[in-house]
């Protein structure tokens, strides 16, 4: 597949090219909680160099008893954040029935780890011309991950960004085991951009900058990072969310590594 586009495919998300020389960072809260939370986070991450805003309005929570997302109200908040900052929006599409509503606000559809093999959902996004940020299933092999991407492409949409977000192993020190082997392997096997999510890959705030640096060193084209103005109060994934100051510092470090590799940020 790499031979099809030797230089690599560039996927444009709103006004941002993913997969080129420039390493891109997508940042924002795990979940949209309020207008104030999203817009303040968007301003901070933009100032630190993030190029796209993340935030879930529909949340695929493992427990049905926790916050499930603000849904349509959350989408409207993301729209306001885009208007306020100009940042393109990456947000999860959990269900094909939400395609139209999410499509009104999403500059890229995020397909979550739990839905990587939801084949009807893959077919649906494959039928659009919107970029798809496809996260690796937590139990998926690299081969299965690539089959999922091929399913999207087979429907006509090859604007796919692959995202390594950690897999389940016997290790309990971290939420998932971030498989950085996947980065060079995916870059070798495909022509698609590859990004890394060290937030879900570790589950621990203090580990995130370490793995963000390692991901860029391994050749990732970008990062997706959870940031929250007050992680202790977060309704979702507070333990792995960076505080704004941590994010600013992480960006400085990652930029230095990008420079060593002849890449920009
Ligand atoms: C997320 O990005 O908040 C998320 C739910 O990610 P994943 O699908 O990788 O668990
Ligand atoms: Mn999350």
How many structural domains does the protein architecture include?
Answer: 1
Per DSSP, the total helix count is: 9
The outline comes out as globular
CATH topology type: TIM Barrel
C-alpha Rg, in Å? 17 Å
Describe the sheet with the most strands: 8 strands, parallel, barrel
Report the sheet-strand fraction: 15-25%
Second CATH tier, the architecture: Alpha-Beta Barrel
In sequence order, what are the helices and strands, one letter per element?
Answer: EEEHEHEHEHEHEHEHHEH
Bound molecules: phosphoenolpyruvate, manganese (II) ion
Chain-averaged pLDDT? 97
Query: Which bin fits the share of residues in helices?
Result: 25-40%
**Uncertain runs:** none
What's the β-strand tally? Answer: 10
- Numbering strands along the chain, what is their spatial order in the largest sheet? 3-4-5-6-7-8-9-10
By CATH, the superfamily comes out as Aldolase class I
For the termini, the CA-CA separation is: 27 Å
Structural class: alpha/beta
Question: How does this structure look, described?
Answer:
It is a single chain. The protein has nine helices and ten strands. Helix content is 35%, strand content 15%. Strand 1 and strand 2 (16-18) form a beta hairpin. The protein has a single domain, classed as Aldolase class I (TIM Barrel). The strands form two sheets. Strands 3-4-5-6-7-8-9-10 form an eight-stranded parallel barrel, surrounded by six helices. A two-stranded antiparallel sheet has the order 1-2. It has 265 residues and is α/β, with parallel strands linked by helices. It binds phosphoenolpyruvate and manganese (II) ion. Manganese (II) ion is lined by residues 30, 200, 226, 236-237.
């Amino acid at each position: 597949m790499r031979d099809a586009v030797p230089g690599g495919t560039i996927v444009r998300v709103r006004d941002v090219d993913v997969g080129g020389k420039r390493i891109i960072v997508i940042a924002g809260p795990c979940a949209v909680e309020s207008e104030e939370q999203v817009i303040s986070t968007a301003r901070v991450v933009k100032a630190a160099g993030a190029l796209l805003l993340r935030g879930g309005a529909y949340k695929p929570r493992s427990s049905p008893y926790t916050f499930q997302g603000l849904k349509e109200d959350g989408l409207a908040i993301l729209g306001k954040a885009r208007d306020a900052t100009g940042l393109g929006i990456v947000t999860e599409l959990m269900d094909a029935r939400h395609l139209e509503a999410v499509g009104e606000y999403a500059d890229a559809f995020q397909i979550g780890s739990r839905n990587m093999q939801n084949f009807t959902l893959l077919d649906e996004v494959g039928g659009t011309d919107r970029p798809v940020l496809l996260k690796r299933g937590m139990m998926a092999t690299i081969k299965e991950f690539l089959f999922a991407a091929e399913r999207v492409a087979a429907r006509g949409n090859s604007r796919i960004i692959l995202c390594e977000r950690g897999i389940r192993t016997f290790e309990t020190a971290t939420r998932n085991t971030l498989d950085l082997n996947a980065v060079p392997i995916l870059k070798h096997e495909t022509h698609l951009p590859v990004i890394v999510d060290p937030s879900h890959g570790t589950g621990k705030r203090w580990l995130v900058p370490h793995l963000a640096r390692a991901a860029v060193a391994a050749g990732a084209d970008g990062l997706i990072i959870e940031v929250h103005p007050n992680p202790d109060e977060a309704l979702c994934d507070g333990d792995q969310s960076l505080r704004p100051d941590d994010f600013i510092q992480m960006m400085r470090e990652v930029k230095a590594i990008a420079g060593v590799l002849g890449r920009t940020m």
